[in-house]
Design brief:
Layout lengths: L3 E6 L6 H14 L4 E5 L5 H11 L9 H25 L3 E5 L2 H11 L4 H12 L6 E6 L2 H15 L11 H17 L4 E5 L4 H13 L3
Parallel strand pairs: 1-3, 1-4, 2-3, 4-5
Helix pairs in contact: 1-8, 2-3, 3-5, 4-5, 4-7
The structure holds adenosine-5'-diphosphate (ADP) and magnesium ion.
The site of adenosine-5'-diphosphate has 13 residues, from helix 1, helix 6 and helix 8.
């Protein structure tokens, strides 16, 4: 069967983890091999980098350039060690965030030059590009309340990005919308501000055209 590379994007709490798990099950039921990955991380090297970017050691803040390069170092390893082999074997690869997150967070959010961000991405991914990118769209206020509720149940702590303030997340959100508008053939915007079942159905409708 022909391979398929699908990435999930959107701000924290939009439902990426929830929906990737659901889609993976649905695809497996349909008889497809599914590989689920996340960024930053997804490989032992990448998971170590994830810890550094989420909880930078020491007292100095991580510089935006360092953050950009670490994200793309994790990505380069993921592409070579996991994504390309899985696609070569005909799997459906589901990735929780990919390079659009670098454009949205380090570019639009941190204010790095988008061309520079794109250069780092190009180095990390080469010609490995998503066939379909699902942007799970929720208002910022919903993101904040879902992440707050998730913290209560899972006990997860704050990370580097939580220190960034509302204006940062507004730029990230606007960035995702601009990216989707710029590549309408690759992106599908999913209304994620509804219960999980209808979100899953919207996602399945977008994915089944590609199977
Ligand atoms: N459609 C939904 N409606 C309400 N709550 C949701 C929905 N999808 C996920 N959640 C809850 O919101 C929180 C964030 O979802 P999660 O899948 O972890 O998002 P992400 O991976 O994008 O950060 C979790 O506690 C999850 O159970
Ligand atoms: Mg998640």
């Amino acid at each position: 069967m022909s391979s398929l590379f699908i990435t999930f994007e959107g701000i924290e709490g939009c439902g990426k983890s929830t929906q990737i798990e659901r889609l993976a099950k649905r695809l497996a039921k349909a008889g497809r091999d599914v590989v689920t990955l996340r960024e930053p991380g997804g490989t032992p090297i990448g998971e170590t980098i994830r810890e550094v970017v989420k909880h930078p050691p020491g007292t100095e803040p991580i510089s935006p350039d360092t953050e950009l390069l670490l994200m793309n170092a994790s990505r380069a390893q993921l592409v070579q060690q996991a994504i390309r082999p899985a696609l070569a074997g005909g799997a459906v690869v589901l990735c929780d965030r990919f390079y659009d997150s670098s454009l949205a967070y380090q570019g639009y959010g941190r204010g790095l030059d988008l061309a520079k961000v794109q250069q780092a991405i190009d180095l990390a991914v080469g010609d490995t590009r998503p066939d379909l990118t699902l942007l799970l769209d929720i208002p910022l206020a919903v993101s904040q309340s879902r992440v707050g509720a998730r913290r209560q149940t899972t006990g997860e702590g704050q990370d580097q990005f939580d220190q960034s303030g509302d204006a940062f997340f507004e730029r990230v959100q606007a960035g995702f919308h601009a990216l989707a508008k710029g590549e309408p053939q690759r992106f599908r915007i999913i209304n994620a501000n509804q219960p999980p079942d209808p979100v899953s159905d919207e996602i399945w409708n977008a994915v089944k055209d590609h199977l």
